[in-house]
Here is the input.
Amino acid sequence: MNKYLVIGNPIDHSLSPALHNHWLKENNINATYDKIKLEDHEIKNFIQNIKEQKVAGCNVTVPFKKTVIPFLDKLSPEADQTQSVNTITFDNGVLVGHNTDIAGFDAAIKKLNFSLKRKRVLILGAGGVVSSIILALKNMQVQEITISNRTREKAESLRVLFNNLKVLEWGKLIDFDMVINATSLGLNNEKINLDFTSLGKNKLFYDVIYNPHETHFLKLGKQSGNMTENGKTMFVYQALEAFKLWHKIEPKINQETLKILDND
Ligand code: ATR
Here is the structure.
């Protein structure tokens, strides 16, 4: 039986197994999907297991999206551009790193009917998923992307991958059309210490976090009369794209699928 895994650290919170196992069953595919917590030094051996076909494929989450790259044979153009891999396939003897976070974010925004063309976007955070969000935003032809991160060097280092990125000191605010929380603040009900109230309405507040479904950041956005969206749709669509890569089948997304992810 084919075995799929998601690797990360921490990994307990991951809802990928519930979602993939649901789709595997629904499509009568004889395979399993599990999660495994790894340490840095275990990554090389783990990937060797895919080459030896002990593992059929895997998803990669924080903090290993970049760590896996040296051990792969090839990267998809998107994974290469973002230097971020969240899905690994083994096809015809070749280990390929893909990035389906970009398509996930793109699908989530398209569903909102909020055009980002020539708009200004502020991203809070510079962790694992941010390069994918930047590439998706660039493909949507946004006008300006500004990154603000507690550790400024991490925001600066994204400039190596993308030109025209602006960097803003953590704790400062500029006007924007869309603001994205890509920090981990909110996972445990933490507040983000920024005063959005003076910026007006008709903006989009987007949180990559989907559990809890409404972070303090999204509550603030809503209270000040703005549109809000959490990271659930992005999560589901990145999983859908990974499923398609492995099984060549497009799984269904319906109320039942979305319910699997409602655990708060
Ligand atoms: P990684 O950085 O390993 O990829 P992540 O969960 O994707 O992990 O990213 C965590 C993000 O939340 C980072 O941008 C982090 O900022 P630093 O780069 O300064 O660590 C941000 N973050 C976490 N805790 C924070 C806090 N208390 N205040 C501000 N930003 C925080």
User: Anything to note?
Assistant: The longest strand covers residues 2-8.
